[in-house]
Amino acid sequence: MASVIGDWECIPRSYEVTKNYxxxxxxxxxxxxxxxxxMVDSKGTRVSLGSNSSSRSSSISLLNDPLLLTLDGTDPxxxxxxxxxxxxxxxxxMASEYVRETFQKSKTKKREKDFSxxxxxxxxxxxxxxxxxxxxxxxxxxxSTSFLSVGNTGTGTDAIKVHTVVSDKLKFRLEQxxxxxxxxxxxxxxxxxxxxxxxxxxxxxxxxxxxxxxQRVKALKIAxxxxxxxxxxxxxxxxxxxxxxxxxxxxxxxxxxxxxxxxKAYSGPESSRKLNTESARDTCQNWFFKVASIRELxxxxxxxxxxxxxxxxxxxxxxEDILQRLTLMIRGIGDPLIAVxxxxxxxxxxxxxxxxxxxxYNNFKDFLTVYHTIFAGSIRSELNRQRVDMTKYLSLYGPxxxxxxxxxxxxxxxxxxxxxxxxxxxKNNGPILMAILQAFMSEFIAARALEIVxxxxxxxxxxxxxxxxxxxxxxxxxxxxxxxxxRSGFLKExxxxxxxxxxxxxxxxxxxxxxxxxxxxxPINETNRLLHEIITRLSSTKICEKHFQQLHNILDKILENQxxxxxxxxQENFLPFLxxxxxxxxxxxxxxxxxxxxxxxxxxxxxxxxxxxxxxYIGKILNDSLTAxxxxxxxxxxxxxxxxxxxKVYFGRDLECQLSFYVEARGTFSNLDTVYGTLxxxxxxxxxxxxxxxxxxxxxxxxxxxxxxxxxSFITIPSISCICQQMDLYMLSGQVALVNQCMGQAxxxxxxxxxxxxxxxxxxxxxxxxxxxxxxxxxxLSNMLATLVVVPDSPEEGVLHLxxxxxxxxxxxxxxxxxxxxxxxxxxxLDMLYVQSLENFPYHITGVISNDELxxxxxxxxxxxNNLCVYVVEKILQQLKQLGAEQQYKMQTVLSLExxxxxxxxxxxxxxxxxxxxxxxxxxxxxxxxLLDVKxxxxxxxxxxNIYNLTKDTNTKRAQSLQQFxxxxxxx
Length: 972
What we know:
- It is a single chain.
- With 972 residues, the chain is an all-alpha fold.
- Among the domains are: 138-146 and 185-317, no CATH class; 318-409, no CATH class; 672-759; 760-882, no CATH class; 887-971.
- It has 44 helices and 6 strands.
- Helix 25 packs parallel to helix 28 (584-601), helix 33 (700-716) packs antiparallel against helix 34 and helix 40 (859-885) packs antiparallel against helix 41 (889-906).
- The two termini are 21 Å apart.
- Its main location: other.
- Belongs to the VPS35L family.
- It comes from Glossina pallidipes (Tsetse fly).
- Keywords: Endosome, Protein transport, Transport.
């Protein structure tokens, strides 16, 4: 076939090319908006179905959502959309259900009192979890109970029967009481903490199961024995967690009793409501009589507190009097640790039944009365026996005292002043001061900041250091600061004590909490002074290594709360503080955090050279931390942060200074390809900025600057490891050079890009999937062909040198078998060659003399173009022949028609060989026309007719050839 195309001749275009614009019209609805369908039901009511309708249709087919129709709602997004249309989205559905349940509960609990204090008000659930996590032990534990034996003798659930006769029920309960005498109690010893928790959980399950099996006495006995466990302080360090576990069981017991009484009182018809209420009152009295008969004080207190809410079923009950009575009863408990936790439980349950706080305050006063016994000799002897120091022992009081004080101060400062005055007069008041700082509102602490600082400075308590107290004060100040006029004096007074801490651990732990207060409320010089003090205290490497976490927290708080990050970066002590992180991994994390905050809080552009120098130093630390073992995600994150910093550096119209910065950055960040890509992009942008300043009229100075920019890019790109990124940047840099009339630099960039095609891998692995490079190469070379249209030929290289190079590299890239990539590029090259033959190109670059002006349709140039067209067509024909040999007839048919159309548009059909080639391609395609859409061939014929209609009035000979060609294809 090659012999029949030797007479190819590009024919001049004899008609004007016009663009067919799509018809436009005004619309008031988004095209993707769901349609609204109005239906009329049998009653004549109009029902609207659509995205904005309150009524939801059960028929999705009425909604013209193309994604839903195509995917039939099987993908997750479509399922969510379907749910939105049919019902409601999941979150809204959950919210509506919650509102509905809340409304129902509010109706059923209409008779209950509404108190301002509840368990949730103090977030007891969060407190109980923190207690369980904090107070643990590795010592062996013991438990005494009648309900965890392996072999029950007739008292288990299997032996329980339902007794409907009253006399039988009474007899059965008396038998139960005989079975549960104290002689049956078993002692489980040497339990680990996990075993102990499992045993407590078994007791919990046994209580619930006994209750549901109508074994009320057994449930009560379990509650009593659980309460007795709280008298065991043989393992002091575990006592707060022990309290939480046992009171959880008591809470369940109290709820079961209350719900039972409530059901008795309010169930049944309205006519028998009075009788039911009387029965519930009698049952309630019976429960409290049973509790009053408990011999030991501690279980009697705990069980009565657990069912405290049941007093509402008794007439003329005053919760205030009951709570005060229980408060006085607690005075009978000798161990201060056990007593304070009983008071904590009383306050917690009492808050659910009354809003009064007098009993809370009285409980705290009673605790202060016996507070001195904590330091008594008997307590110290027990601590020595258990090998528990005073610091650990005092911390056991923290959860209970904190909760009591928090309850007293909740939404009411009625007693807070009195409490503070009383605490001042108490010896060894450190633990209580700590509780006040943690429990009272930060506004209360801030209003008395100077007074509290002096109080903390004068406090001397064994087991509570001043650093702990000042740390707690710093946490409170971070939430709410004192008045502006008091802050300086307050800070000075506080640091008079803080600076006396000689232990680096105490100092840095305390300063960690104060850093946020200082950064947020004082000028930058105070932060700088704090950093200087920290550097002085922690100058030793060994000391720093122990406190990396605290130093990192200080840095993070300062960065988060400093409003002007640039002002912080230029402080003389900031970078020396960063150098305290001696380990590379820790320093890298700190530097990364700085750049993250800088990205988020900095100004749009940075011009300060000191800030830039500091950021360069920080970025260099990150760059140097990268090794061959660094994971790709870490490199990506660091590259992103440094690239963001580079983009924010802007010197305005001082372009040379800007370029100097990019040159320095290139030498600093040598391990990051992404940063190099950012530098090349920014330098190209800089060149275009210079072009914009002179409005395209380059002077000698601007031309030299632009060439320097292109040279920077040309030198930098080879350092990037990704071949695709290199090729893209070469293309972009060449286009920038072309716009700026730097022809030699543009040719060098384009040539370098084309030479890289042969080095491309055949496939890339992206997200675990292998993706062939064929589509990228085709897209890239097509883009290159579009650029080469306006690139003038170099006088040293000859006609269409870059195009010839492109045609050569196509053969060097190993396209996949049966790939249409080479043919697609050759077809696009044929389009480009035809444009080269035109008298005027369809587009130009201002200031660049393209080949249409350079050659002016010189016959020698046109001859070269025609020869290249012959070469390209030969390559396409070879591909068609290979497709036929591989029986890829569909591809062969499509490509035959594409080539035929180009011959008709571009070539002179008056040439016999060209005419015959076009006809042969048509006949080749008709052999397998059944493989294509039935409308495909008619559309081809219509396109040929359109070309004929355009040329019949301007080029008679060409029109005659086209007419003859149409007669042949219609005839055959």
